[in-house]
């Protein structure tokens, strides 16, 4: 009988992460949370608030932050929501799957050096592929949200009116969008 390969003795397996231990955990949970926000909140930009199960939460958010974009849903905003629904939501599901497959493969027990080499090659390929799509997502999400912030800064007004948002309300709304520039944008630099 062949003894299992001691993974601690193989330097390639030590501290093998997609990004870093903190970033891998952070983005994994971020994708889970953002998946549900995209499905139950952001999609109302296309479907309409009145048709959403989370209607009360969305209306409370709009009144609290004066989010005229979600209330009025201009055409360009709807197009960004379509982009989110048809590209980002499937990416979230793919990221869940690939993060799990990566770590399952990484922690798989191997009994021969040949299988260890195959696992190492597979992990290396997956890592490159996952990191590429993380950067694609990061660019897409941060750029589209940055445009929303630009619009809020230049044209922000109270929902359903032409009255411009005062500075405090404008900054409050921008502060709700800003994390969606910084968090996905951070993927571009990892």
UniProtKB/TrEMBL annotation:
Localization (cell): Endoplasmic reticulum membrane
Any one annotated GO CC term: endoplasmic reticulum membrane
Pfam families for this protein: EBP
Transmembrane segments: 26-49, 80-99, 132-153
Chief place of localization: endoplasmic reticulum
Superkingdom assignment: Eukaryota
Start and end residues of each EXPERA domain: 23-188
UniProt keyword terms in alphabetical order: Endoplasmic reticulum, Membrane, Transmembrane, Transmembrane helix
UniProt cross-references to InterPro entries, sorted A to Z: EXPERA, Sigma-2_receptor-like, Sigma2_recept
Keyword Endoplasmic reticulum: yes
Its membrane topology: Multi-pass membrane protein
Family as reported in the entry's similarity comment: Belongs to the TMEM97/sigma-2 receptor family.
PANTHER family: SIGMA INTRACELLULAR RECEPTOR 2
Protein name, UniProt field: Efficient mitochondria targeting-associated protein 19
